Amino acid sequence: MTVKQLSVFVENRAGRLSAVTRLLGDSGIDIRAVGIADTKDFGILRLIVNDPDKALAALRKAGCSVTCTNVLAICISDKPGGLAAAMETLYKDNISVEYMYSATISKEDGTAYLILRVDDNDSAARALTEGGFRVIPQQELAKL
Amino acid sequence: MSRFWNEKIECMSREEMKKLQDERLAAQVKHVFENVPYYRKLMEEKGLTPDDVRSTEDLHKLPFLTKADLRDAYPYGLLAKPLSDCVRIQSTSGTTGKRVVAFYTQNDIDIWEDCCARAIVAAGGTNEDVCQVCYGYGLFTGGPGLNGGSHKVGCLTLPMSSGNTERQIQFMRDLGSTILCCTPSYAAYIGETLHEMGYGPEDIKLKAGIFGAEPWTEEMRREIEKLLGIKAYDIYGLTEISGPGVSFECEEQTGMHINEDHFIAEIIDPDTGEVLPEGTKGELVFTSITKEAFPLLRYRTRDICVLSREKCSCGRTLVKMTKPMGRTDDMLIIKGVNVFPSQIESVLMKMSNATPNYQIVVDRTGNTDTFEIKVEISDDMFSDTIKSVTDLEKKISGDIHSILGIRAKILLVEPKSIPRSEGKAVRVIDNRKLV
User: Fold this and answer.
1) Hey, is the C-beta of A64 within 8 angstroms of any chain B C-beta?
2) How close A25 gets to chain B, by Cα (Å)?
3) The sheet that has B282-288: what strands, in order across it?
C-alpha cells in the first residue's frame, strides 16, 4: 500500500537544489511530489518519483546521500474540508502524522493527492481505506 | 626578596651545571635501568648498560621514548618506584587512547613545585603577592603545579580553577590579586569581561600573569598586557616530564629558561633522530634527571623549537627555548586541550559502517579558539527527518565532549564535499596563524 520516498541530504548552499533536480531530469526521472525540510545548515529534500529505483541509483552514483522511506500517497477531494476529513480519520485512530506535503491536483475529477508520513503505515492505510479514502499504490503513482 | 628563587642554580656557570647534570644523569640512568624493565629492554637492545652513560656527552646513545611507549606501558610500565613511595597521579587532558598517567613521589612534587616557584619569582612574585590560579585543578597539571609553586613562594594563593569569570573578577578586585595564572586565552577572556563589566586595569591590582598550556602569539601577549595592565610571562611544561615549570620566562620575554638542573634538553632532527647543534630548529627532547617515580629518558615532546645559550639580561644562565613553533605529529592544542585527529576518528567510526570523511576547522575569534568538525554524511547516518540529522549531530558532539572535555560544533555536510588533496581528505584546517 505504500510508496517509496527518497530523502536527499542537501547542504544549504547556492546551486545544490538546482544540481540535484537537474541530475534527476537528465536521468529521465519524473517528479510526482516534492517537499523540503530545512534548517540553518542543511535541508532534506523529499521526493516521490515515477521510478524510485532508477532515481536512487542515479543519485547514489552522483555521490548524494539518499535514504528510502515507505510513505502513504492518498487521494482526497479537492474542496474545502477535504484534507480535514482525512486528518480526522487518522486522529480518530490515534495515528500521528510526522509530516505531509501535497502532490498533484487534478482539475478534471476534483481530487488532490497527498503524501503522508505517519508513525504506522499499516494502521493508517487501513483507517483511511475504511474511511473511504483511496490509498494509491506505487504502480498507479508511476502512471499519474 | 631576590629576583631569583634559587640564584645558585639559576645563575650557575655552564661548567658547574654540566657537572651537576653529568652526575645526576649517570645516577638516573642507573635508577631507570634497575627499576624500569621496559626501558632496560630498550637499552639492552642497543647493547647499553648504565656504564655507557657517564656524562651528558653520552646522552645521545640512549634510546628515545615516545608517547606510543607511554601508551604501551600504561599504566605502570614506566614506574620506577614502588607505589607505596608514590603520592600523586596527574594525567594529560583526559583522552581515550592517548592517555598518559604520570606518578610522583613527594620529592617529585617538591621539585615540580620548586620549578613553578622559580617561574613565579621570575615574574616578580614574592610573599607579598596574591596569586590567583585559574588553571584547571584535578588531573590536569596546570592548577596543582602553579598552586604548589605559589605556596612555596609564600604568595596568598587563590585556588580558583577555571570558569565563572565574573566571580574571578570579583575576587580579583575584592582580594587584590597581583599575579594571575591561567591559559592565555582565558587571560584574554578575563580581560575582555573586565572591560565589559565597565572596569579597566586601574580597577585591579594585577601586575603579572603566568600563562601557558597552549600556543599564543606576541600580538596576543601585547593585547593581554594592555587589557589587564600587566606584564605577561610564558610558561612551558608537559605532564610526562612533570607539568608546568619545565621552563619559564623572565622579564626579558625572549624565550623560556629551562630548569636544566632537573631536565636536560636536546634538539633532534625529527626524521633521523640525530642531535642537532644549538641554535638549530628541531624537535625538543627532555631527559628527567631528578624525577624518582616516573623518570623519562630522552622523551620526544614532538614540539619544534630552538635552544639558545645567548647571555640573558636577567642574569640567568639556564638555556632558553623558543615558544614551540609547531609539532612533528598531528596534535592540535584547542582551548588548552591536546586533540589528536585520531580521537575524532574514533568517535566517527561508531556513527557509520564506514568511517565518514571529516575535517577539523580551528580558528580564533577574538582570543577564543573555535572548534568545528565537518562530517560527510552517508546513507546509513540519517533517515527522512530533520531530527535524525540533529540527533546525529548531538550524538557526535556529546561523544567528542566526553572524550576531549571541550565542545565542537558539528557540521554535517554532503558526501565528497570536503576537499581532497591527492585523493586524501585534508583533515585539519588551522586558521589561527599562531606561529
Assistant:
1) yes
2) 20
3) B263-268, B282-288, B299-305, B326-327
Q: Strand, helix or coil at B342?
A: helix
Strand partners, B410: B373
Single-letter code of the amino acid located at B115: C
Nearest to B389 among A42, A98, A117 (CB): A42
Output the nine-digit C-alpha cell for B319.
Answer: 638555556
Say which of B382, B383, B417 has its CB closest to residue A11.
Answer: B417
Total structural domains within chain B: 2
Give the three-state DSSP class for B369: strand
Question: Considering the domain boundaries, does residue B435 fall inside one?
Answer: no
- Least-confidence region, from A106-120, B18-32, B46-60, B409-423: B409-423
pLDDT tens for A15-65 read 999 999 999 999 999 998 999 999 999 999 999 999 999 999 999 999 899
pLDDT value of residue B96:
46
Listed in sequence order, the residues at least 6 apart from B360 whose beta carbon sits closer than 8 Å to its beta carbon are B332, B339, B341, B344, B371, B372, B373, B427, B428, B429
A132 within 8 A of A109, measured Cβ to Cβ: no
Q: CB-based contact (8 Å) between B377 and chain A?
A: yes
CB B291, CB B270: distance < 8 Å: no
Contacts of B413 in chain A (CB under 8 A): 11, 42
Strands B130-133 and B179-182: parallel
| d(CA B332, nearest CA chain A) in Å | 26
Q: Render pLDDT for B358-415 as a digit per residue (tens, 0 to 9).
A: 999 999 888 888 999 999 998 889 899 999 999 999 999 999 998 888 899 999 999 8
Q: A12: nearest CA in chain B?
A: B413
Q: Any idea what DSSP says for residue B155?
A: P
Q: Which amino acid is at B257?
A: H
Q: In the CATH scheme, what architecture does the domain A3-69 have? A: 2-Layer Sandwich (3.30)
Q: Which residue of B has its CA nearest to A40?
A: B411
Categorize the per-residue pLDDT at B37 as very low, low, confident or very high, splitting at 50, 70 and 90: very high
Q: Write the DSSP symbol of residue B241.
A: T
CATH number at residue B312: 3.40.50.12780
State how far the Cα of B369 lies from the Cα of B366, in Å rounded to an integer.
8
State how far the Cα of A54 lies from the Cα of B63, in Å rounded to an integer: 61
Pick the CATH number of A70-143 from 3.30.2130.10, 3.30.413.10, 3.40.50.720, 3.40.50.280: 3.30.2130.10
Q: Which CATH number does the domain housing residue B361 bear?
A: 3.30.300.30
Pairing mode, strands B320-321 and B256-258: antiparallel
pTM over 0.95: no
- B416 and chain A in contact, CB less than 8 A: yes
- Pairwise CB contact (< 8 Å): B383 & A5: no
A97 to chain B, minimum CA–CA distance in Å? 12
